[in-house]
Write a structure and sequence with these properties.
353 residues, mainly alpha, DNA polymerase, domain 1, hpI Integrase, Chain A, two-stranded antiparallel sheet, 5 strands
């Protein structure tokens, strides 16, 4: 329906029925309040106004979980989160509200609710352990926020352990993985690979990185997620990669799409996924993510002279994780630092810019 695309701040949910019909439901996007009636009707307009007014009012009294979530999503803590984090959290909190939205806040005086939530988590975890942890974690954060403001008497979900045990900090790209990926990447993805490999920054920050943030020796940027200003010294290999780009092309973002423009997140993910599959890299539980290049970057930054404490600040790892990665992988990634320049030179001879 064309009208649905013009509803600012309204989330449209379509649910197909067994008879082939489709039910359409409307929700206020920020408060997740259900909006009765059809767009354009008096009932719908009144509900939309009420939701907007509720969003502007500070939450001083909450009767159920839905009200707590609404208050949390209007809080200063929420606004300080990165937009990408808020987008993910909204989806998770929607699942929490669907299950627990009508639950009265009075139940949080009893520890019994903890067992009920863990049982819910375990059901989800049978197929989706990370999603299960995310939902309980988000629920606990809402209750922690509410406890600080006297909206609930206790947070019985505090301290619930995750069911997902994979240590992604120990899963990093090794030389053979990087070599396989490099063979199938075009120049745009290869630049992103080099930046991730040698700086340890998140994908979003790499795609936004501009040439004026590189001074010939280091990269300075403000991380989108942490809002932290970081100074990343360039490894010899990364400096060679960046300096090889002709001066006239050093405008705008460092990583560009095939048309020379800014890479949209979804387009980059699609291109990266296709290259990963073509490279024949691990799948399943051992699948490597772009994010895992941060682990490899720990070893590269160490070879560039950074101390473990400095590396932890740059990449966002804990100091324990940094030391563990260096202990296990530093020697195994040596050839990446030693041969990167040689491989780049060989590539440029056959693939001029």
């Amino acid at each position: 329906m064309k009208q649905q695309t013009l509803l600012h701040g309204v989330h449209v949910v379509k649910r197909p029925h067994a008879d082939g019909s489709v039910a359409v439901h409307y929700y206020h996007r920020k408060t997740r309040m259900k909006l009765p009636g059809m767009p354009g009707s008096a009932e719908f307009a009144a509900a939309l106004r009420a939701a907007e007014e509720a969003m502007r009012r500070p939450v001083t009294v909450a009767t159920n979980v839905s009200a707590l979530i609404r208050g949390y999503c209007a809080s200063a803590e929420w606004k300080r989160l990165a937009e990408s984090t808020r987008a993910n959290e909204r989806l998770v909190l929607k699942a929490v509200e669907d299950k627990w939205g009508t639950l009265p806040v009075a139940v949080f005086r009893s520890k019994k609710i903890r067992a009920r939530v863990i049982e819910w988590r375990d059901e989800i975890a049978e197929k989706h352990p990370r999603a299960a942890d995310a939902r309980v974690g988000a629920f606990a954060r809402v209750l922690a926020w509410a406890l600080d403001r006297g909206l609930v008497d206790d947070n019985p979900l505090a301290g619930i352990k995750n069911v997902y045990r994979s240590e992604r900090a120990d899963l990093i790209w090794l030389p053979e993985h990087v070599a396989a990926m490099s063979k199938v990447c075009g120049p745009e993805l290869r630049m992103a690979l080099a930046l991730a490999l040698h700086t340890g920054q998140r994908q979003a920050d790499i795609l936004k990185l501009r040439w004026d943030q590189y001074d010939g020796r280091a990269i300075r940027l403000k991380q989108g997620k942490t809002k932290r200003n970081v100074y990343v010294p360039c490894t010899k290999a990364l400096k060679t990669v960046l300096d090889a780009v002709p001066e006239e092309k050093r405008t705008g973002t460092v990583v560009k799409n095939s048309l020379g423009g800014v890479y949209l997140k979804r387009s980059f993910i699609a291109m990266w996924s296709r290259a990963y599959k073509k490279a024949g890299l691990p799948t399943g539980e051992e699948q490597l993510h772009f994010h895992d290049l941060r682990g490899t970057a720990v070893t590269m930054l160490s070879r560039a002279g950074c101390l473990p404490q400095e590396i932890a600040t740059i990449t966002g790892h804990s100091l324990v994780s940094v030391n563990r990665i260096l202990e296990v992988y530093l020697s195994r990634t040596a050839e990446l630092a030693e041969s990167a320049i040689e491989k780049l030179d060989a590539f440029q001879e056959t693939n001029p810019t």
